[in-house]
Request: fold
Amino acid sequence: MDAEITVSELTADESPTVSRLCEQALDLPEDAVEATSIVDVLWSRAAADRVVVGLGAYRDGALVGALLCSLSATEPGTGHVDLIAVAPDQRRRGVGRALLRRAERVLAERGATEVLLAGNPPYYAWPGIDVRYTPAVCAALALGYRQDRTAWNMTADLSYDTSPALRSTEAAERRLADQGVTVRRAEPADLPALAAFARSTFGGAWDGELAGSVGRADAGCHLAERDGEVLGFAAYGSSRPSWFGPMGTAPAAEGSGIGGVLLRRCLRDQRAAGLDQAQIGWVGPVPFYSGSAGARIERVFFLYRRSLNAE
Ligand SMILES: CC(C)(COP(=O)(O)OP(=O)(O)OC[C@H]1O[C@@H](n2cnc3c(N)ncnc32)[C@H](O)[C@@H]1OP(=O)(O)O)[C@@H](O)C(=O)NCCC(=O)NCCS
Reply:
């Protein structure tokens, strides 16, 4: 390790400093602009229900790099690196290497046998490393990580009135109403029913994403129901203000147009909040999003893992 660098655990009061570093160090503008919400979700909110550790790298007393890592709440023995960023003028001097190696030790001490450079849902900012962060891809390979999966986002264009993403939902909602289906914004009182629906229909726990969306600033959720029974939902903003998801429609209601209506209601909200594009995160059914909102595949991520037992 470079003798001039010291790495130590970050304290919660350093969160604004970490956000400022990320604003400069996340080279993609769409990430830099959301640096503060990314740090808040990955650190403050995630720490409510899992082990999260922040590491800072310092040179001459100044923060020059930061890393946030966490343990999976569902897969014992799996650690995640959720964020790594090194100040642009400090790169290729071993800071990233020192941070990653320390993260591996910290995670191992807490029971991890494997480390993933991949999102740890429901609190994640990226599914993995965006391929355009090419230095990070190089660093992952240099440090013994192997790519095991690929993931992608789709972009919905909200920048012009006639975008397919902003197509009216009125006629489809009238057709649904004729079949007794109501579509409306979800309220905090709906959370238990939504979480139960997600669990019983899809087997996964989306409680975190739902709680992070319903009734929160920069976020929201819409649902469809018949006779008080949830038939589908769509949420946005839980991981990042510009990100859409998750969503789900009951298999029995598929093909009725519910999904497209719920999706476009969320996208309409995101546009009203001032966004000119939304990211449909970690997709999923490409033809559905392409057909319902004209979304296109844009961000592509490589996911990496490294066993800590292989040394
Ligand atoms: C990825 C990042 C954290 C690496 O930090 P760093 O301090 O420059 O990394 P290190 O100096 O420790 O490099 C470790 C090794 O990675 C490889 N590497 C890093 N940057 C590289 C580059 N631009 N090209 C080729 N290899 C590279 C090298 O093998 C390097 O070892 P070497 O310098 O001895 O050859 C930094 O580039 C960064 O902050 N990028 C923007 C944020 C980002 O991409 N985060 C990940 C997505 S969340």
In short: The longest strand covers residues 146-157. The longest helix spans residues 95-109. The domain at 5-144 is CATH 3.40.630.30 (Aminopeptidase).
